[in-house]
Amino acid sequence: MTDAEIVAAPPILEVRDIGKTYGSILALQGVSARVGIGEVLCVLGDNGAGKSTFIKILSGAHAHSQGKLFAYGVERTFSSPREALDLGIATVYQDLAVVPLMPVWRNFFLGSELTRGVGPFRQLDVKGMRRITKEELAKMGIDLRDVDQPIGTLSGGERQSVSIARAVYFGAKVVILDEPTSALGVKQAGVVLKYIAQARDRGLGVVFITHNPHHAYPVGDRFLLLKRGTSLGDFTKSEITIEEMTKLMAGGAELDALVHELARP
Amino acid sequence: MTLTAPAVTDERIKPTGLIISLLRRPEVGAAVAALAIFTFFSLSTTAFLTAPGVATWLYSASLFGIMAVAVALLMIGGEFDLSAGAMVGTTGLIVGIVTTEWQVNIWLALVIALAIALLIGAGNAFIVMKTGLPSFIVTLATFFILQGVNLAVTKIITGTVSIQGMSAVPGFDAVKVIFGSSFDLFGMSVKISIVWWFAITILATWLLLRTRSGNWIFAVGGQVTSSRQVGVPVMKVKMGLFMTTAGAGWLVGMLQLFDVSTVQATTGIGQEFIYIICAVVGGCLLTGGYGSAIGAALGALIYGMTLQGIVFAQWDNNWLKAFLGGMLLLAVLVNLYVRRQAGVRS
User: Fold this and answer.
1) How many CA atoms lie within 13 A of B283 on its CB side?
2) Domain assignment of residue B284, yes or no
3) Does pTM surpass 0.90?
4) Cα–Cα distance, B104 to B45 (Å, whole number)
């Protein structure tokens, strides 16, 4: 456990004993984790482990009902995603919040368009937006020949990266990635992991939600394991191996029983 | 596990050639068709390319064009408005009735009619957005309500189904300058509605391609949840679009009223689908998120040229409908092909 570790600066985002109830249903309880500058926190768990609830609390979609949430060391309760966003906590959802038929640069700036001119003559700064999109994507290591192509023509990994680049450009200090690799093939998932590492190296905190230990382990610094709404622990990389992680997630003894059951007689 | 360096470009993306990027423009198909129809009627009839001929089909296209452009914006935003045609009648009747029957000042009457139109547009938007019902159904209902009210109320108040004596209303001539006048250009007597049509097409194109609102119209039509997530005010955008369509209905209502000085209670009925057809021929997708204002204007031009061209060629007028259906089918097929060529997955 990392509770004993001494940290100089407060982590960007920290939760202590956090929980959430929906009516009589305990969706999440007693979960503690944190993510600092240039760190990757991987949140692992099987279906129904409480990963979605955890993201919703961090991203401001739902307020937590137990425990404490700190942003830059200050206690907060988010009542809307906008509040979290204003503090630099950006979430990249599974559907990526992109409009497939629109060009890459329009998607990049959608909702926060750059404009020039005043009053009724205010219009989009198309040149500026095209240039910035190209530059920001280049920083992520994506070289698009044409930022005018519809974003729907990009591959899954590239679309994911555009969404990350967009969050970073608009001032994100922490990027929460909701299962970014789950729908991708091996090669494309590798591309996304590379971008996560790139974001980390640029000093961002990354919360990477996944159910795949093989995706989490290479890129993660800390690992939060969830099961049935509770925390199985918050580990640093040195404290756990990938085999232990897989075993914990599947529920140790259960997996052993399954192996036994599936073995040829 | 070691990470392989990400491929800088995806090998599955083909380089975009000039033809593909040209095909990406939604109005290309309509432009080609318009040129073909123009050439056909210019060669096959003697009246089509004369000054009065051109003025006639341009005028015909202009009234449909204004509505088609507004409907195209709405369709790009992912909605339909079947009440757009009846609205033309409603606004004309309001101005006609309050000025001829109740002697209301004509300028005030214009404002009243516009206010009612915008209110109905906002009502459409409100119901669609709050209930999540398809706008097709909601505006179909509005269409029938307006159609019925137009006839019934006109009958109650005037005893007939049309408004007469508009030209005797004080101030009629002053308003006619704005909505019903014409001027000479290159030997043609150009009606002012053509100027309105051009101006609105240019304005709508600028709005769509160069303003935040335009960006948001494409976004709400293309993927409404994504738009919400990135902070696009979806309700405001859709509200604005429905009100724009209703406002365009008012404008066309006025252009017709002050051109011919009379309005029938059935004005505009049956034209709502022509607006949609013009927009689709101009490259709008029925599913929203794609299309162009210029395309819709070209769609209306095609309709106007064919409408008058068939008259000039002295064919049976019924061919128009058949032609319209054929055009629509062709346009949808072209759109499908174009989208595949541009490699748009949606």
Assistant:
1) 23
2) yes
3) no
4) 47
The encoded tokens of residue A221 equal 């610094």
- Does the residue B64 lie in any domain? yes
According to DSSP, residue A105 is labeled H
Q: How far apart are CA B181 and CA A1, in angstroms?
A: 83
Alpha-carbon torsion, ordered B292, B294, B297, B299, to 10 deg: -60
- Determine, yes or no, domain membership for B12: no
Cβ atoms within 10 Å, residue A67? 17
**Whole-number Cα distances in Å, B151 to A1, A30, B94:** 78, 68, 12
Task: State the DSSP string of B101-157.
Answer: TT---HHHHHHHHHHHHHHHHHHHHHHHHHH---HHHHHHHHHHHHHHHHHHHHHHH
pLDDT in tens, A22-59: 888 888 888 998 899 899 999 988 877 888 889 888 88
**Interface membership of A63 toward B (CB under 8 Å):** no
d(CA A24, CA B149): 52
Assess contact for A89 and B176: CB atoms under 8 A: no
In a domain, residue B306? The reply is yes
Query: What residues make up the domain containing B231?
Result: 26-41+50-340
Distance from CA of A58 to the nearest CA of B (A): 15
Number of domains in chain B: 1
Kindly report the nearest CA distance between residue B26 and chain A, in angstroms: 12
**Which residues of chain A make contact with B222, given a CB cutoff of 8 A?**
99-102
State whether ipTM is beyond 0.95.
no
Interatomic CA distance for residues B199 and B207, integer angstroms: 12
Cα separation, B58 vs B302, whole angstroms:
10
- CB atoms A112 and B343 under 8 Å: no
Residue B274 belongs to a domain with what CATH number?
1.10.3470
Contact A20, A253 (CB under 8 A): no
Interchain CB contact of A41 with B (< 8 Å): no
